[in-house]
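User: Can you predict the 3D structure for this chain?
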Amino acid sequence: MHRLTLASAGFFALLSGPALAADLGTDLPMTAPGFDWTGYYTGLQAGYGWGSSDISGTEGEPFAASPDLDGGFVGGHVAGLWQFNQAVIGARAELNYSAINGSALLEPGNSVGTDIKWLGSVNAEAGLAVDRWLIYGVGGVAFAGIETSQDAGIGFAKTRTSTGWTIGAGVDYALSNNIVVGAQYRYYDFGKEHFDVPDDFSDRDQDVKLHTLGVNFSYKF
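Assistant: Here is the predicted structure, written as structure tokens:
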């Protein structure tokens, strides 16, 4: 009988435990809600880019050169984000002025060059929110105004708009309910673009690939 009494007491104690915990929980303060990433954003970004340009002659005297590219960029962006629990999805568009360029020497007094005048992209974005931190991946269609040039005698320069793709990743931090800062890495592949050039020079294909690393400042509406 004594064992039965102890067993019964233990059984009722187990049953009353969750109810007691629930009663105690009602007296505890609720955790403050995290930062809500849902909203529309606009802002500025700036950074450094580096890459390569493979240039090959397609008519006339054949040649090949691969200028190394580097330089800075600055621009603006707009974005819209929607948060579902910790998941964040959205869209982002960017446009940058660029001073990323380089040249390669074919022979004394004869060099070829590549100059990225501007670049932009339209992207999908998906990430994971941890309160005021957002870690995300981004990718989409990329555009750029890319110049090919040759410095030999009078020389020439010709610019075309190239279309390609981009992929990258970034991290943002919300300093306040409206101010967000972050950093982002991007890879761009603008593919091979054909250039018909003046008769004194060889027509060419130019294949440009680019990496960028930048910082961004955004205002959330």
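Residues 2-25 form the longest helix (24 residues). The longest strand covers residues 87-107.
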